[in-house]
Amino acid sequence: MIHKYKWNVIVIGGGLAGLTTALHLASNNFSVCLVERSEYPKHKVCGEYVSNEVLPYLKSLRIDPFTVGAKQISKFKITDTNGDPITATLPLGGFGISRYTFDSLLFEALKNKAEIIFDTVEKIIFEENQFRVTTQNKSVLLADFVVGAFGKRSNIDTFLKRKFMQESSPWLGVKAHYDYDFPDDTVALHNFNGGYCGLSKTETGTVNACYLATFKSFKKYGDIEAFQKQELSKNPFLDKFFSGAKPLFERPLTISQISFQEKKPVENHIFMVGDSAGLIHPLCGNGMAMAIKSAQFFSEMLIQLFQKGEFDRTAMERQYASQWHNEFDERIKTGKFIQRILLNPYLAKAGFAMVKTFPSLVPKLIQKTHGNPTE
Ligand SMILES: Cc1cc2nc3c(=O)[nH]c(=O)nc-3n(C[C@H](O)[C@H](O)[C@H](O)COP(=O)(O)OP(=O)(O)OC[C@H]3O[C@@H](n4cnc5c(N)ncnc54)[C@H](O)[C@@H]3O)c2cc1C
């Protein structure tokens, strides 16, 4: 199929970052085309705890996760590898919702406002001040602006020869839903050698268990069941969970080659939002909020510049990159610091002892990995 049409903006990838950008711009009279490679609804590897910092913005887009049953979460529990717990009240709190439902909620809000094409983008060429986007099914789409919202790792990263693709990314993510008695208002983070596992409730009342592990720690076992039984279950909380919880998926979802290397928020004139621009360590529970927030400030910038009639591409790229770094660099840096401590048995022991002596450190660290709510 050859399908040529010119849009103000093409958004590549329909996860939270892409759907939010498309919805914000399409609601402000931009002609928007979103290209997503797979249909909704779908499960994704994710901890499914969303920070409340994005609630006022979602409300301004008429998205309310509580209408589909999201659970309000206000408490945090963390255990060390021996299962020794520390509890805290979350400074801002959040909500539990599956990606299956959250992404679909945004898709439903968008579907009559923008063109949505289910296809895989293969090439993005920028020449003579416009973009030409080519898909696997041979559609050719033209636009003034392209937003890259294609997630952690995509064929487009290879096409663009992005630097992080050449470096090793030895992380594995695993997720599944379970039937298990667990409090609605709590998000838990349980450590094990080589990783950590998050537990929280979703809108259906099921418990989402999602963990991140180094490939090195996983490789000794080679399969997920053995890894969970023999490594994760050394933590008594995880032992109790995995021996008592009833799995609701035929098998857990997995992703590998997760990279936390630095990325650029603008590459080849493409404005990157969400994980395409950079990743925070999942233990912070802030990746989805960052995806939504980057969509927000990119869209606000574009709308403002269109209203003023200012289209200096170089200035826009500089402004977006600078805003991205101002918003997120500190969160990412703090996330890296916490991750380094948690995954080193000696540092983790000292860290837990310190936090037990000074419990106010927990909400302070959480605050440093989160932003403030903005409309
Ligand atoms: C183990 C783990 C646990 C996590 N837990 C949490 C948590 O509890 N809380 C939190 O806030 N964050 C968490 N995160 C982070 C969060 O999942 C991400 O930050 C978030 O999904 C980013 O959204 P996104 O829209 O940028 O990317 P995605 O949701 O990955 O969306 C990208 C989309 O692009 C599409 N795509 C890719 N390539 C193409 C192409 N060529 N053509 C068309 N479409 C394409 C994909 O199909 C996909 O739908 C976790 C991450 C991991 C790995």
Automatic annotation (TrEMBL):
Q: Which SUPFAM superfamilies match?
A: FAD/NAD(P)-binding domain
Q: Where does the FAD dependent oxidoreductase domain lie? A: 9-41
Kindly state which keywords UniProt assigns to this record, in alphabetical order.
Answer: Membrane, Transmembrane, Transmembrane helix
Name the residues that span the membrane.
Answer: 7-26
Output this protein's name.
FAD-dependent oxidoreductase
